[in-house]
């Protein structure tokens, strides 16, 4: 951390800050410039409350040197984390594919799609039972009934289940049925939910918030890890930009940033990012080319009747073509 | 709603969509252009699932005509809503001021600040007991102990309490002590929390998410209202932009937008918006000039020791000056 | 400037950088942390090319301490700049009002509006003769004929003319007729145009780019000033955000940021910011409340026939009401 | 175009608008809803000035149906445009690679890099002679001397030259030496420059502005094409987002959007997008995977001495590796 003092900061204020920082366990190096004074802090800066320093009227600004996340930080954990769910892994050198409908709608719908994506080579089955919707008047999911159908689909296909946890109250029931618990973009900074996820023994799939930075995503992962659950998978799913042609804007450089900053695996959800089925295959190829550890793809056999996200769902034969494309790249 | 069909859409596909829309209770008017066909829908469009229409490969796009919020919509409720808490009102023609520390830290701290802001003319006391923090390693609030101190401050000053509800698990306890329950920016789309707030009898102060549009804010208010709680106060607290000089960017035109679109009262939090105490007074005056129904201001007698948000907290004499400025405008 | 070295930076690389910086005239202070090394640079850092330092694979990042603008910087020029055009001033304690139509359309249109805004108390007349339009098929302005009409309106009313310079080729002719030369938001980083403006003896009204930071705006002012023209007026005119209810989002805290960082006067254009005439008066009051040195307002006596920006133009009697409101605040 | 009237719009106002639209050559279809009236317009809507309609106080909003660009629009020109420069093409099925230094610095520098990228398989040589810099104190390029060096490099290697045109004044000289004339992101809406480019016979490489939408980029292409120059190549080079780890955020879905909306070729500049050399190769592979028609890559043999953009320049052997990776994908 570097404290930049204003040009008119009196010597005694600077000395007071130096002593305060030293008392918190830091070493302080002062550099006297013509128009400012720099205080370079090294040592254990964790006890420093930046807000208290910034509240000093002679402090111009603070410059942060280190990332605030520790457990998620590659610096302190150089090796890649690989998540293993009943022999299916996410992380390392292969591309793990999670596929399935946006929402679980019925037994027939789910079983049809599950069998189809299994045959095309997906490793995990996705499907929403509790749905976070921006309108209270939209379909909110089949809830526990949906979870039971997912369990049935798992029994039939062997694919572990990825499904969303929306809140504390329904966490237990989702945890009981799901194999990987997804925290959605709207909940990336729902700190109570993150803490609850940190107490689970199931891996957590944490999606990046629509306007979140990579560092904020990693701070949210840190919340989970600080409670004891080290099995966190990150997911880039598009960010909000001024572009209106796509639903969101897929940020593939975030995959590279996450891999540089953290040891956690990172996957890509092109379906939500673009919102248009015709873009899903080329964006999936791009995600693989950039080095993502996996893909999460929405598939529906009848998009025009889907209760949610029909416009971005691939029909089964198009998902098959996507899987073929990915394999060719490998 | 208007459906724009692609130039090459076959007649039978168009007719099928027309019939589907009619079966859902809409009237459909077709306009045949050279390069597209428009289907104008009127009547009850609520049963339409836009995603299913967009999933049709011959549909170019949907154009939305009406806002999705109903209960919060001024069209259907032309008169201003005024919230009354034990005789203190928010809404209408006066400016309600909520003031107090970011976090409740101790009895002495809270009582000192509460007495001071009361004397300067604040109507409501703010103070956080459960704190949503981006780092798991930051101070998380005094929790129930903090709520008890707020109760004590209310007893001493007569000011109703505004305090944050962070999650379902701790909602009951916060609801017991608080008079107005605040939902923070990070939780604006925490739908489970919104539903729980909708079941409360306490007024809800709903803050705009950092990258949310005004329509999204009103949709979140709709979630609360759809559960039965019509007492919602909206709060503009700064949005994320590319500007780095301020913590966020205060969007005062949002106050005008909200007042045009909704009957709900809207207040402004300049402290979080700018993050710098020296900007709080002029931005407060601007908020009043633009027609906000209230202000929410962070005050601390010792900002350099504050456990959170010291840099944006006003000292009591500066808060007094702010209140004097506001009165002069009146 | 502070250079943050990576944890694994070899001693000889650090020493080489230290020597390089010293040879460029800086003093270097090294702080050895556990996970990084900080090099604090003081002295004359202008000769340092940040890109060359960042190209070193052992450099983690650079932290900038000082603003890059010098001539526009309040640190080196503490007193407010006041621009004087034939006795009408911008800067200091009063609010200078610039008003008129978006585009000059005809003699009758311009003279009607000019006389009206003059009577309501505007000090300067605005009107576009060369119009930057996003579509090549839109009205591009009356060009030199428009400038001649502006001259005629000035002769009739005594109001100095504010009009836009769009490019190098037409700069001379606009400079001949205009009293204050406006550089539009799209051209804020048209560096060739900024340099040409720097050679003019007329004051320049520089509008903030739609996604520009305050620092970038001041760097563009610096371009003008570095060529010799110190008469620069800055203008906040709304930034692009995710909000769609308004055309852009007026950033009033930018006025405070500019006044803190620079000695140059700063005015506000609420018409372009919101794009809706009904918001112009309240936003103007807010701009005055926050301390803007002036306002720029679009006025048209027949908005429904205006060739551009009809939706945001005030009718004369509404402009009169705005002027009355502002005066009451004074 | 669809006009949405407010609920309280009097019949005579609606009829007046209908007649006005018909007089401009449109057909109007009215749909009467409970809370609004829709006027669907088909036919030739080009003569309509949206601003005049929006200025009507009974108009709620306009909904745009068609894109405003015509010449750049794939609807009216279904086949891909391929640009041919002395036998080297951009467009179609192969990946055209443009490589070279950010700035031309010296004969030795340019010839070294030019020979190297030629040998690695680049088809075009890039190099800046006139440099748009955000600071007036930064290196502004070697100007005409730089152009002569580029000519010399072309003579030695056979690679056509891609170089930037910054302004009207220096357009002629750049046009004389360059084979493809680049318009930079800052100038995407410098309309005077676009018009001048439209009169050139050289192909124009138009970069997307930092906060521009794809539609705005295509409108700028339209400016060039409307003046007669149909040879426009578009370039995605990263947009401004809240992410700070990278310089900008590469938007690869924009490549797909452009290919869907327009017949013009589109290339990707990963170097400027990310600002970090270590990301250039994986992002290049992703750009190829998504279907870009070409790449533009910054290469420097001594990045630590580069006068600009050292941090994002690839050393020659890393550029060779990039070319090898791309070929393998092919």
UniProtKB/TrEMBL annotation, chains A, B, C, D:
Keywords, A to Z, come to:
Transferase
Where in the numbering of this chain does the DAHP synthase ferredoxin-like domain appear? 1-67
InterPro entries given for it?
Aldolase_TIM, Class-I_DAHP_synthase, DAHP1/KDSA, DAHP_snth_FXD, DAHP_syn_2
EC number of the protein: 2.5.1.54
Signal peptide positions on this chain: none
Q: Which SUPFAM superfamilies match?
A: Aldolase
The record's section on Pfam families has:
DAHP_snth_FXD, DAHP_synth_1
Q: What class of enzyme is it?
A: transferase
Q: Which GO terms describe its biological process?
A: aromatic amino acid family biosynthetic process
Q: Where is the DAHP synthetase I/KDSA domain?
A: 83-327
- The residue stretches assigned to a coiled coil in this entry are none
The protein's GO terms of the molecular function aspect are: 3-deoxy-7-phosphoheptulonate synthase activity; aldehyde-lyase activity
* PANTHER family associated with the record: PHOSPHO-2-DEHYDRO-3-DEOXYHEPTONATE ALDOLASE
Protein name (record): 3-deoxy-7-phosphoheptulonate synthase
């Amino acid at each position: 951390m570097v404290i930049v003092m204003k040009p008119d900061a009196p010597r005694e204020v600077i000395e007071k800050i130096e002593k305060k920082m030293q008392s918190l366990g830091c070493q302080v190096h002062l550099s006297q410039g013509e128009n400012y004074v720099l205080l370079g802090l090294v040592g254990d800066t964790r006890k420093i409350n930046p807000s208290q320093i910034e509240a000093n009227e002679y402090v111009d600004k603070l410059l942060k040197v280190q990332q605030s996340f520790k457990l998620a930080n590659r610096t302190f954990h150089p090796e890649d984390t690989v998540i293993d769910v009943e022999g299916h892994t996410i992380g390392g050198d292969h591309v793990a594919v999670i596929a399935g409908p946006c929402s679980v709608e019925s037994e027939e719908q789910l079983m049809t799609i599950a069998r189809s994506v299994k045959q095309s080579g997906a490793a995990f089955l996705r499907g929403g039972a509790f749905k976070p919707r921006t309108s209270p008047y939209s379909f909110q999911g089949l809830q526990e009934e949906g979870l039971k159908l997912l369990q049935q689909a798992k029994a039939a296909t062997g694919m572990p289940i990825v499904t969303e946890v929306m809140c504390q109250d329904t966490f237990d029931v989702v945890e009981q049925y799901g194999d990987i618990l997804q925290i959605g973009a709207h909940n990336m900074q729902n700190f109570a939910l993150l803490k609850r996820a940190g107490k689970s023994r199931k891996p957590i799939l944490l999606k990046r918030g629509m306007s979140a930075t990579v560092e904020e995503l990693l701070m949210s992962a840190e919340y989970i890890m600080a409670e004891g659950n080290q099995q966190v998978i990150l997911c880039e799913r598009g960010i909000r930009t001024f572009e209106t042609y796509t639903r969101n804007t897929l940020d593939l450089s975030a995959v590279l940033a996450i891999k540089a900053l953290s040891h956690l695996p990172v996957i890509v959800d092109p379906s939500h990012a673009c919102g248009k089925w015709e873009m899903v295959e080329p964006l999936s190829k791009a995600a693989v080319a950039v080095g993502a550890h996996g893909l999460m793809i929405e598939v529906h056999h009848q998009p025009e009747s889907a209760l949610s996200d029909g416009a971005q769902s691939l029909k089964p034969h198009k998902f098959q073509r996507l899987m073929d494309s990915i394999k060719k790249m490998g």
